[in-house]
Amino acid sequence: MPVAVMAESSVSFRRLLEQCETQELEAPGGIATPLVYGQLLALYLLHNDMNNARYLWKRIPPAIKSANAELGAVWSVGQRIWQRDFPGIYTAISAHQWSETIQPIMEALRDATRRRAFGLVSQAYTSIVADDFAAFVGLPVEEAVKGVLEQGWQADFATRMVMPKKPGVLEASFNRFIPSSESTPVPPIPNEQQLARLTDYVAFLEN
User: Fold this and answer.
1) What's the Cα-to-Cα distance from 69 to each of 23, 74, 91, 103, 179, rounded to whole Å?
2) Which of 62, 144, 155, 197 ranks highest by number of CB atoms within 10 Å?
3) Sheet with strand 128-129: strands edge to edge
């Protein structure tokens, strides 16, 4: 998706979020429809607003939750986000057949998560195992490696390692401008610790 289209979509999702919030506030008896709850919950996740997402989930009446499986599926994605389980986010999104009102939001959430993961890897690592990188960005290994090679990264096919380049250029394959960072790259670490280390790095950036 071109950057200009992404910006337009971002504005549309923000407007939809505001509309859903208003509809919930104005709902008779303070109880909104499952459609409003589902869209609002998904939009909070898209904007990485986990506090509002958690509060919304708590105030949705249990009867509405139990009668609408899609609400539970949206919250399952939210739980993976809360746990900073990037591979789990992609799995949870792919596991459900979303309705036409939720599917565009989930597709945007998947893409936003992928771009975020890509940016984190480029900031945190001088090298990473290709399989771990692919899991973190939610793509097949060949597709993930091909995408970053086109953006000037390097890959050692003998060791199956990917070497990110310093962020600060337009990463066309992932449709975002990743700003320059002054942070010092983290040295390579043992393979089995790669995803755990990335999760810790997410937590560090968010604190």
Assistant:
1) 21, 9, 17, 14, 39
2) 144
3) 128-129, 161-163, 154-156
- 177-204: pLDDT as tens digits: 333 333 333 334 444 455 555 665 555 4
pLDDT of residue 15: 93
| Residues 61-104 pLDDT 10s | 999 999 999 999 999 999 999 999 999 999 999 999 999 999 99
